[in-house]
Amino acid sequence: MGAVVAAAQGHGAKGDNVYEFHLEFLDLVKPEPIYKLTQRQVNITVQKKVSQWWERLTKQEKRPLFLAPDFDRWLDESDAEMELRAKEEERLNKLRLESQGSPETLISLKKGYLFMYNLVQFLGFSWMFVNMTVRFFILGKESFYDTFHTMADVMYFSQMLAVVETINAVIGVTSSPVIPSLVQFLGRNFILFIIFGNVEEMQNKAVVFFVFYLWSTIEIFRYPFYILYCIDMDWKVLTWLRYTVWIPTYPLGCLAEVVAVIQSIPIFNETGRFSFTLPYPVKIKVRFSFFLQIYIIVIFLGKYWLYNRLFPVTSLGGRVKCLNILKVFRVISKGVVQS
């Protein structure tokens, strides 16, 4: 069989009439075609007897006007090649995913890795926070002056490990912005290693206690929040604390860092540490304290920039707002005036 013959009563170009046609295909087709009647047309599905490419559909070169091919099923050789290529790419991608592991496995590994990192950091900062708190209640102000010698090792470890947060942001493990994370990492480590670690005279000052205590206060709420996030849990009280505690502690921490830098300037001037002389013909001695004075300005600008990032502030009802820090201070100051 290489043709289709059909006749039907219907309403067409000649009104109500009997319409019929005889259509000869280019090659043989299987008998028993499938007919489907709609309000607009008659769909006839015919299958080739031999699967091969035809130059055209019918023997006559000119296609009849009433004949409308189903272009959803229509393929030429280039379309077929693209389809085969797409299937091959899909097969290769499937093999690649199987070799790399399923997406669920990768997500589980990422969450496990982040959970362990945040847990280690939480344990480190909470140990320092509890230790400094207990020592303060027992020894009072005397505990201020040996804070560095009792906390330095753990603080060194925790602050060096914090580089992982910047790396995670760079490689896309977390969605945290890279620049704020890098600014905080570099700023804290400059204070820790250059101001405190390299100047023995600074290690016995009370400002060390305040810097370490304020850093720890921020982190003992931040890291548990991330830990719960890794296991898909949400504790609204902790969320509120995580996005509220930083409002007073962050500027206080900034102030403590500035005080530490100011107190170190006379020491660097006296010892000449990190100072250098420019080569001939200038031969000017550049004191490290000059850079520290510039760094004080950098601290204020950097913290101001970080503050003006939109931080989420969470209410106990769980509703998260993004507020500019200047608006926060405006609300606080307005409340003070009204009271």
TrEMBL record:
<keyword id="KW-0812">Transmembrane</keyword>
<dbReference type="GO" id="GO:0102158">
    <property type="term" value="F:very-long-chain (3R)-3-hydroxyacyl-CoA dehydratase activity"/>
</dbReference>
<keyword id="KW-0597">Phosphoprotein</keyword>
<keyword id="KW-0443">Lipid metabolism</keyword>
<keyword id="KW-0444">Lipid biosynthesis</keyword>
<keyword id="KW-0175">Coiled coil</keyword>
<feature type="domain" description="CS">
    <location>
        <begin position="1"/>
        <end position="58"/>
    </location>
</feature>
<comment type="pathway">
    <text>Lipid metabolism; fatty acid biosynthesis.</text>
</comment>
<keyword id="KW-0256">Endoplasmic reticulum</keyword>
<dbReference type="InterPro" id="IPR007052">
    <property type="entry name" value="CS_dom"/>
</dbReference>
<feature type="transmembrane region" description="Helical">
    <location>
        <begin position="114"/>
        <end position="134"/>
    </location>
</feature>
<feature type="transmembrane region" description="Helical">
    <location>
        <begin position="206"/>
        <end position="229"/>
    </location>
</feature>
<comment type="function">
    <text>Catalyzes the third of the four reactions of the long-chain fatty acids elongation cycle. This endoplasmic reticulum-bound enzymatic process, allows the addition of two carbons to the chain of long- and very long-chain fatty acids/VLCFAs per cycle. This enzyme catalyzes the dehydration of the 3-hydroxyacyl-CoA intermediate into trans-2,3-enoyl-CoA, within each cycle of fatty acid elongation. Thereby, it participates to the production of VLCFAs of different chain lengths that are involved in multiple biological processes as precursors of membrane lipids and lipid mediators.</text>
</comment>
<dbReference type="GO" id="GO:0030148">
    <property type="term" value="P:sphingolipid biosynthetic process"/>
</dbReference>
<feature type="transmembrane region" description="Helical">
    <location>
        <begin position="249"/>
        <end position="268"/>
    </location>
</feature>
<keyword id="KW-0276">Fatty acid metabolism</keyword>
<dbReference type="GO" id="GO:0005789">
    <property type="term" value="C:endoplasmic reticulum membrane"/>
</dbReference>
<dbReference type="InterPro" id="IPR007482">
    <property type="entry name" value="Tyr_Pase-like_PTPLA"/>
</dbReference>
<dbReference type="Pfam" id="PF04387">
    <property type="entry name" value="PTPLA"/>
</dbReference>
<keyword id="KW-0275">Fatty acid biosynthesis</keyword>
<protein>
    <recommendedName>
        <fullName>Very-long-chain (3R)-3-hydroxyacyl-CoA dehydratase</fullName>
        <ecNumber>4.2.1.134</ecNumber>
    </recommendedName>
</protein>
<comment type="similarity">
    <text>Belongs to the very long-chain fatty acids dehydratase HACD family.</text>
</comment>
<keyword id="KW-0472">Membrane</keyword>
<keyword id="KW-1133">Transmembrane helix</keyword>
<dbReference type="GO" id="GO:0007264">
    <property type="term" value="P:small GTPase-mediated signal transduction"/>
</dbReference>
<dbReference type="InterPro" id="IPR008978">
    <property type="entry name" value="HSP20-like_chaperone"/>
</dbReference>
<feature type="transmembrane region" description="Helical">
    <location>
        <begin position="288"/>
        <end position="307"/>
    </location>
</feature>
<feature type="transmembrane region" description="Helical">
    <location>
        <begin position="179"/>
        <end position="199"/>
    </location>
</feature>
<keyword id="KW-0456">Lyase</keyword>
<dbReference type="GO" id="GO:0042761">
    <property type="term" value="P:very long-chain fatty acid biosynthetic process"/>
</dbReference>
<dbReference type="GO" id="GO:0030497">
    <property type="term" value="P:fatty acid elongation"/>
</dbReference>
